[in-house]
Amino acid sequence: MQPNEITAILNRPISQELLARDLLRMAYVAKDGTPRNIPIAFVWNGSEIVVCTTKNAPKLPSLRHNPDVALTIDTEVHPPKILLIRGRAELDVVDGIPDEYLQANGTYQMTPEQRVEWEAEVRSLYDGMVRIVITPTWAKLIDFETTLPTAVEELVRRRAERQHT
């Protein structure tokens, strides 16, 4: 998929709504070769997805060995809106708490007092974190109105062909 095609998909209004959500699911291959799929808070910076994790997270050795990831961001309503993204994870170990971590967790409903307590707890717990930066290499938006899963698109095409013969 060409970068301009990816950008066109990610710039669609529905994609932008999904990229503003709190959580995505990230799939990767674990060290034992089996798949993993985890929910994780994220930030979209306009060109990359950034997730942050502890320096001792079990996913890090797996991502160092195989940086390919698949991401899903979706809604829980009918019809669902689904943004599928594939990319490669780059790991960036940082001292302190990355701004993206605080930003990604900033949308949760907390009173200002709770937010201060939460941030103090985070800063006392972590001496550093790992930023996982994912640059999309493939994207597909499924909204069930203008776009469908590829297999369903094929069934619609076959049905249309049958009806015209």
Query: Biggest sheet: strands, sense, closure?
Result: 7 strands, antiparallel
Distance between the termini: 34 Å
**Would you list the SSEs in sequence order as H and E?**
HHEEEEHEEHHEH
DSSP helical segment count: 6
Computed CA radius of gyration, to the nearest angstrom: 19 Å
Morphology: globular
Mean pLDDT: 93
Report the strand count: 7
What structural class should be given to the helix and strand makeup? Answer: alpha+beta
Amount of helix? 25-40%
Strand order of the largest sheet: 2-1-5-6-7-4-3
- Give the low-pLDDT segments: none
Portion of residues in beta strands equals 25-35%
Description of the structure:
The chain is an alpha+beta fold and 165 residues long. It has six helices and seven strands. It has a seven-stranded antiparallel beta sheet, sandwiched between helices. A hairpin with a 4-residue loop joins β3 and β4. It is globular and about 70 Å long. The model has no long low-confidence stretch (mean pLDDT 93).
List key phrases describing it.
single chain, 165 residues, alpha+beta, 35% strand
Compile the SSE list and pairings.
Blueprint: H1 3-10, H2 13-19, E1 23-29, E2 35-41, E3 43-44, E4 49-53, H3 59-65, E5 68-74, E6 82-95, H4 99-104, H5 112-125, E7 128-142, H6 150-163
Antiparallel strand pairs: 1-2, 1-5, 3-4, 4-7, 5-6, 6-7
Short note summarizing the structure:
The chain is α+β, with helices and mostly antiparallel strands.
